[in-house]
Amino acid sequence: MNTLNLLKNTTPILWGLCLFLCLKVSAQPNYPRTPAEANLIYSDLEHFMEAYAELATNPDTLQVLQTLYFDRGSEGLKEYIRRHKLTPELMRDAMLANPERYALLPAFLDKISAIEQVYKDLMKDFSTVLPNAMYPPTYLLVGANRGIGQASGVGQLITVTRPADNLPKLKKLMVHELAHFQEAMAMGLPKYAALYAKPDNLLGMCLREGGAEFVTSLVLGDITQTEALEFIEEDEKQLKNEFLKDLEKEGQNRDYWLGVNTDKSKHPNLLGYAMGYKINKAYYDMATDKAAALQDILRMDDAAVFVTSSGYFDNP
Fold this sequence. Notes:
Elements: E1 40-41, H1 43-54, H2 61-68, H3 75-84, H4 88-97, H5 99-102, H6 105-110, H7 112-129, E2 138-141, E3 149-150, E4 156-159, H8 167-187, H9 189-197, H10 202-220, H11 226-234, H12 236-248, H13 254-258, H14 271-286, H15 290-299, H16 303-310
Parallel strand pairs: 1-2, 2-4
Antiparallel strand pairs: 3-4
Helix pairs in contact: 1-2, 2-4, 7-8, 7-10, 8-9, 8-10, 8-15, 10-14, 11-12, 11-14, 14-15, 14-16
């Protein structure tokens, strides 16, 4: 069985962070090539809501979560559990710590038919930007209230507690993660894995995240990290210089560009997403053949050459 193993960092990070650390395959997966065949799978959400209702009268939280949610998991939930070591204990603790987020889920499930239509329309819009895209299914999951979205060999894995009351956020997440899948397909899986596996690869990771952000902007007119983009554009010259300097440092200051900042008064999270977006946009804007430029963005496997070609830092 062919397996695409796109493993995301397991530290508590924003829902939009899609950081691939490991990828092992023998061949590219074979998923539908038409948006009409794309599937939104939410059986895990339905199972969780059964468990959630049962907990109103059954005090054995761990048993209920295990039997009604974990034991009935889809392929998407099984993959998520494997990656993030999700347990009933972690779920219980998250539900106790953030009951208001889980309380949003019944209303979210009540609207699932409308969300399915939004998803279908979104896939059509995606196909106008990338006509030859591949469409693995998207799984809506319930996790331990961590904002995680990622691509995987079984499909996109999206936890819904964070975006349950924010449909634009959910749409951007779906597109961003699907764009990452197209990057992996366009580059070839070994090259894609190598980009994330090697050390001191801040530039490559920012370009990959920025590439997914750029595709998201073409589909939806917005990116996931709007606060980071606004922050950079307020003093772009200074941030460009800081980025270039950090690329030369040992460790490359990855926490600043790709980490979560607990004190957001200093700067927004995930600045590297927005910096990568700016570089990708510069490359696309200067290109005369936009279709070819978009394929170059998806296939980018030499970060230094790509940045030079973009011209983004020519006038720092």
